[in-house]
Amino acid sequence: MDECRRTDNGNRSQVKKGRSLMRGGLYLTAALFIIYHWALPGGRPSAGPAEHDDKTEMCLTPACIHASSEILYNLSPNYKDLDPCTDFEELVCGGWRDRHDLRPDQGDAFTGTIMAENSQMLLRHILEAPYPNASHHSYFSPMQLNPTGHSTDEANFNKLSAAYHACLDEDTIKQIGLVPLTDIIDQVKKSFRLAGTSARRSTNATSETILLLAKYGVSALVAPGTGADDTDPDVVVVSVSPPWTFGLPAKERYEDDALVKKYQGVLVDVLSKLNPDQDEKALAGVVDLEKKLAAASPNSEDRQDVTKYYNPMSLKNASALTPRIDLANIISGLSAGQEVNRVIVTAPKYMKDLQTILEETDESVLQNYFVWKAVQAFYRYVDSPVLKPYKRFVNELAGKDPESEPERWRTCVAHVDDGLGWILSRFFVEKAFSAAAKDFGDLIVSDIKDQFVKKLKAVDWMDDETTSKAIEKVHNIVQKIGYPTKSPNIMDPESLASFYSSVNISSDTYFANALSMSVFEVAREWSALGKPVDRDQWDMTVPTVNAYYNPPGNEIVFPAGIMQFPVFDVDVPAYVSYGAFGSVAGHELSHAFDSTGRHYDQNGNYTDWWNNATVKAFEERAECFVDQYSNYTVPGPDGKPLHVNGRLTLGENIADAGGLSASFQAWKVRASQKPNAHLPGLEYFSQSQLFFVSYANWWCGKSRPDTAINRIYTDPHAPKWARILGTMANSRDFRESFKCANTKPTCELW
């Protein structure tokens, strides 16, 4: 997915080092197009049927008919009149937009959203049904693999069910009201008690409050975490970062005076009821503090850049950057006393500026800031009129209907997946995956590895020594397909029970359940200190419709959730799965050699392993992608064009191009060995063309303007439509398949 040292997921804060296909799951709209012309007279592409072999069979199975209908359903109604060389996104996705409206509670959606919601529906059916008896268990079942595990497996299921139904019980949640949130707020106020004068609170009070919130998974002022050391990827190291967000979605949003004023009004409205002994000035000052913190924080592209965020230093020197915060005390509290002498400070300048900001901030403002962080983290688990203004504001910020909420069951499925995801994964796999699917996924990824090795051998701008190491890196990449069998083994009920043994779940305490889940996740993260990096761990649960590359682990990971129709299907012609899932697999593998991944060698170590001439050649080619994608725009908050950040999205754009190319070549080789059947109703397209249709079909989507703006500032991925247009412009294979007049790629690396 994305390369970010810190991510704040609701009220949870964890170190992530991965390059992923998407971030948060969903994305964005258009402006500048690269114009090409038809190769044939009359402005029409070469018709697909002209390339068909009449002896090739037509696939008329239910699976093939389903796949054809999906593609036809999404195509523009006048797709035969459109030029694929200039309007491929409209050609493939025009029908998708016509037939898919955003719900009031959605900021954006794409094909992956539909897949995720199909998985959500399946999970709902699992959670609302009784524990499946033995006759309903599939091949992927602990009951088949471990017949003695029935009681533990059922107990695990009951834990899921209790968490789900506690979330569904809105009457009880409403009856309990603010009580559990005010309990957290009281803890914060007790930790950061005001003296009643202008006297400064002690360093200890500030640090203890940061620690209190951090144990609940809430980042305040700083975000400490653990993860693999980039230069020694078998060792777990502590990192200290700015929080990923400070209140508004991006630091740039604090430059919008009208938005900041509205946000400030909402904050004062809510906090005046939750912390009534504070005057309005102290409440309003929270937003001013956030604005200063955001301004001091790194830009989004610097947060993705290992050459800038990897700053190891002694804990003593790190603590000296911000004396007002006892960093050693915070880390000691989170690590249960585990000795820590070395930390990675991802933004030293922020830490220095934070000292000045704290010295200039009144203590009453700082207390309200801590209270507000708790509110922002836990408001989702509370039903009270007091919080309505903030819930409306969050919706408006994403362009949603202010009063909208997802269907309750969707919220509750996501809640269970977030907090007990590996148990839920065990039941998902049983319903939604197969041994054949796992084997096919492994085959596709292995085929793409082979093609990437060929690409590396053919590159003329990379020196021989670097090429040799790069090829070794490809061979060393670990591919994880479908689901984990260690840390935990989701096929072993005892392993799952042990993994979640400290998570306390009740069928009538939704807030307490969520808090227990968060406390568990933070404790689990910090318990890794003093142990080797767990290379069997996965960072995405099995139902997740996504994938990622982890540079220090040199691994590519594909949960079963993304290996579903229409992206992946073992029962349809291979060009469908290679075009979509194969390009995802190639995308993740390409991250090993993008603007970030290239810094990690064949063993996952962050080191300079390319010579200067090769680095220069890479950077010259990469700059083409920066310029290309910077020309794409969405409407900005002031109505003026807001440009895609070509540098922030560089790694993803390189990965899109490299992944598509490797997957196409892999499919061609496989198809030469075993010819593919044709899909009915799609005779207009050749099989090569349908490969690219399948790729683009995956990215069909739409977005609300405000969501698109937020994505531009924070998302290391380009908007969906740009991922189609830009990647097609960079694909020689695409341009040759559709016989475009100009077959030269706009930008090319791998």
Automatic annotation (TrEMBL):
GO terms for molecular function: metal ion binding; metalloendopeptidase activity. Residues 546-745 form the Peptidase M13 C-terminal domain. Residues 84-484 form the Peptidase M13 N-terminal domain. Keywords: Hydrolase, Membrane, Metal-binding, Metalloprotease, Protease, Transmembrane, Transmembrane helix, Zinc. GO terms for cellular component: plasma membrane. The chain crosses the membrane at residues 21-39. GO terms for biological process: protein processing. Its cofactor is Zn(2+). The keyword Acetylation does not apply. InterPro entries: MetalloPept_cat_dom_sf, Peptidase_M13, Peptidase_M13_C, Peptidase_M13_dom_2, Peptidase_M13_N. Belongs to the peptidase M13 family. This is Endothelin-converting enzyme 1.
